[in-house]
Inverse folding.
């Protein structure tokens, strides 16, 4: 990665079972540049952003934000992510939706599950 690259995505791949949501995506963004991800529903825009901000683990490729891994605390403090609208992803299990949206608010693992249980009448574990 060059010193003037703020965001680098190299050969990003993300799959959900047999479905490939992002396939070998590469781009870079320099300081001062603006990036827009455009495409139809299902094109992989949200999945790409989820990987960039560290909410989703890529199946392949490399992402660096100012030279750092997306899941680093420094990147978490630098990057904000607001989804266009809240929706449930019908292709994901309940537990995967909970993990994804809980991750948007910094909730992980059992902490996310406990928060969900306090606000829900459901008695089923999201495994």
């Amino acid at each position: 990665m060059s010193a003037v690259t703020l965001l680098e995505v190299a050969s990003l791949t993300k799959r959900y079972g047999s479905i490939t949501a992002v396939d070998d995506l590469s781009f870079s963004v320099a300081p001062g540049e603006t990036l827009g991800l455009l495409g139809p529903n299902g094109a992989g825009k949200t999945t790409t952003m989820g990987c960039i901000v560290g909410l989703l683990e890529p199946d392949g490729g490399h992402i660096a934000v100012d030279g750092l891994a997306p899941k680093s605390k420094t990147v978490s403090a630098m990057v904000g992510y607001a989804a266009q609208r809240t929706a449930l992803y019908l292709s994901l299990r309940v537990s995967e939706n909970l993990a994804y949206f809980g991750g948007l608010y910094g909730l992980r693992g059992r902490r996310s599950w406990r928060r969900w249980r306090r606000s829900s009448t459901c008695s089923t574990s999201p495994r």
